[in-house]
Amino acid sequence: MAKEPFSIPESEWKAVFDEALEYFRNLLRFDTTNPPGNEREACEYLGKILEKEKIGFEILESAPGRANLVSRLRGDGSLPPLLLNAHLDVVPAEKTYWTHDPFGAVVEDGFLWGRGALDMKHMAVMSMMSLILLRRHEAGLKRDLIFAAVADEETGGRLGSGWLADHHPDKVRAEYALGEIGGFSRIANGKTFYPVQIAEKGICWLRLKAKGTPGHGSLPNWEGAVGKIGKAAHRLGSERLPFHCTPQAAVFIETMAAHQPFPKGLVLRQALNRHLSQWILDKVVPDKGLARMLYATLHNTANPTILRAGEKVNVLPSEAVLQVDGRVLPGQTQEDFLREVQGVIGDGYEIEVLEFQSATSAPPDDPILRAMADILGRHDPSAVVVPNMVPGFTDAKHYSRLGTRCFGFSPVKLPEGFSFIDLMHGHDERIPVEGFFFGIRVLFDLVAHLCTGG
Ligand SMILES: [Zn+2]
Question: Interior CA angle at 14 toward 8 and 19, to 5°?
Fold first, then answer.
């Protein structure tokens, strides 16, 4: 018979919530704006709490003031570890546009306001509470439970998860990692959707160079470098790269479509049809933001972002340079991407790859998704888990290098009409206090299931 996972008596949760809220507010008060980050003090604060609970941890400094906390509860080793990850750095906040001080941790009208409330100090506290509760109750674990509170995610994670993966891989290597981006509810058609990140696109940043005949600006020149590079920029900015249907995109769109009323679901499913996809996204999907997001999950993209040429108005430069922010789908190589870019811009350019990192992806049928759905369903009967792909990148990029299967799951129940995406780097970032409490329980139940069930 399967063993019931460890659980906490109902009567204890209220005190747990109060305790967690206090930790969360204190954590939000550390200004960890990156740059410069300065995550060290926030790490030390978490360390003090763990120390009080007699939970072992280390603070590992990757650069002056840039610190990562790694803590571990030991299991019996019958299963490989589970990692809970949260980055402690936050993006800058323009204080004048905020209703409350972004580092004031004000609670008002049921919300806790602050930079990092959703992205993602809430997950740091939720994760830490999972460790604390399992430790206090001396629950026997089948696997090690690791908690990493890391620096520098917002500028690429080189001093955070990337540094840990490079310099201390044994401290963070796990079978599963839970982190961002996912678990935030979105209500539509009477259902509550919980997207869970199962994949994120890779990057391929390029520098294109066009050479031309230099000369005086007073004479016509049909072979100018600026004209050539302009042509490449125009093409990349207006033409589309080929359609690719990955298993990750398919499961996302199929799941969304299955929960739409007729005929919306039928129409949405056609986004997976290579012949109809373009037309559906351009003409039929009414929400342009959604259409762009769907487009990004079905294509590599190549956005021209930096253009440089010339020094003087009357001198034709001999070369012009364009930088391109390329994002690649799971399964696509650097060569695949370059071939597609070449197909759009044509010949006559020198192409240099500035950085390439392949996409990360976890299997869309991994059993952890079923466990997430079951547990969410217990706390929110209208919950629908939607495995999805994120066009940007997170710490998952670094952990997946260690063979870890990474899932974006830092659950929060949000009120109707509340957009996580608009607030995560926007003004007035805030989290519903009840939604945070909901997240603590859901995450704890999942962690207990993975570490003590069986
Ligand atoms: Zn984040």
Answer: 100
